[in-house]
Amino acid sequence: xxxxxxxxxxxxxxxxxxxHICLYSHGNYQKAALRIRKVNLxxxxxxxxxESARLFCSTEIQNLRTRVAQEIGEAEASVLDAQLALLNxxxxxxxxxELIRHTAVPFEEAVEIVFASYEKRFAALDSDxxxxxxxxxxxxxxxxxxxxxxxxxxxxxxxxxxxxxxKKAVIVAEELTASMLMEIDLGRIKGIVxxxxxxxxxxxLLARSAGIPAITGVAGAMDHARCGNxxxxxxxxxxxxxxxxxxxxxxxxxxxxxxxTAEPSVPGTAVYANCSSLDSVISAREHGADGIGLFRTEMLxxxxxxxxxxxxxxxIYLQTLEIMDGKPVTFRLLDIGGDKSSSFIAHNxxxxxxxxxxxxxxxxxxxxxxxxxxxxxLKASQSYPLRIMLPMIVDTVQFEQLRDIIYAEAxxxxxxxxxxxxxxxxxxxxxxxxxxxxxEMADFGSIGSNDLLQYLFAVxxxxxxxxxxxxxxxxxxxxxxxxxxxxxSRFDKQISICGELASxxxxxxxxxxxxxxxxxxxxxxxxxxxxxxxxxVESTLV
Length: 542
Description:
Layout (H helix, E strand, L loop, with lengths): L4 E4 L1 E4 L2 E10 L17 H29 L2 H4 L3 H7 L2 H14 L3 H18 L3 H21 L5 E2 L13 E7 L2 H5 L8 E6 L5 H9 L3 E3 L4 H4 L5 E5 L4 E4 L3 H13 L11 E6 L2 H9 L5 E5 L1 H7 L5 H15 L4 E4 L27 H6 L1 H14 L5 E5 L5 H18 L6 E7 L2 H5 L1 H7 L2 E4 L1 H9 L17 H16 L3 E4 L9 H7 L4 E4 L4 H16 L1
Parallel strand pairs: 3-5, 5-6, 6-7, 10-11, 10-17, 11-12, 12-13, 13-14, 14-15, 15-16, 16-17
Antiparallel strand pairs: 1-9, 2-7, 3-4, 3-8, 8-9
């Protein structure tokens, strides 16, 4: 029997689990000598190869981004935007091209030299944010080189039929990267241990969003990991045990029994799920969601790659309601535009799409798409009560316009509105300033913390120059949320939060303390958030 080995690292995503190991490699191009041909090398041909690699990797990332948006969420998918920007960075492209032309090296070596230089510069900066961004540069470099050498990231033991490919296993790898997590079925794995990777980087965000226990910074982990061997991780404490003993496993079982896995919601609070597909609705039910606080209906269209018909939509909405069996379900009307463009809907090129034709503006500008969705939702409401949320509302006029269209369609269909509630999504400062009027008109409200923070501070978190200013703890943001909570209370209306802020450790209890008692998060994080709320209540009783 192999010796028990205990190691320490940095907690990336809390939790604990025990399983067998699956080893993952990011590609073995570095193990193959750089096949450099300096004799009779044609720089033009190398530039063509570089361009082919860039286009291939860009398409690969775009496809991956679409899948993650469908399966996990748009906020999580947006972490890949930084890699797309790097692939299209003119300064980097120019450096690679000049190196190829002036030193007669193949594009692989030029990519290695130029990207390694940027990695080193970013890692040396006195900023955790920029140090974490260096991992994006590393990932793009890996993609380009894996393309060049026809190597692929994947499981080391992918050959044997017995390989579980991460299913119900703890993955051990050299580095925690966003690409690694996105190319693995996150719903299948139990934990992650890596030698390197930022605690606050994109990959860490994805691990937390998926609710996967993860530890990074475990130097030498790959030396001790063997495919199929047992491993135990206490990710909250940053502890990894290779070849755990029986007493280790007994202790884990006891801890799991005491953990938050079976905790109910605190009386007076609700922990809902953010969903974007029927699979995620099933996951929400399995994780004990009190309801669905945000169903991103646009993701159904993106997944289908077309505008869904009224009957197709009605069927999905009904299935969602049936799965949740009477629990509250909030469907957000199509939120297209900004960072969510589509190939199946014609868009005019916008200089700044985040300030353009998106959200409710898009809906009002596309009446056929809008009324088709409204009619589908109204028909579904005849079987179960449901909520309709209006996205990116900027003022009362916009809310009234959409509300009137919904009521008109209900009248035409001869369907009562008794089973339908209309809500406003607070994502822009102008809506916050009209909170009194909007909450009086709406049946409920929800805060989209991601966009609200972006518009409050004019900051794009995917822009490396300003993303450090994307501060979820900023007092101005919390002042806005306090205003919304107090306003909702005065009108005796429910206010919830469906941005990712609620899923970060410490924020659920902070939101609850200002009166925002309905939180909506990824299904995998429901138990974690519920546990935090219960702990907060217990601490006040001591």
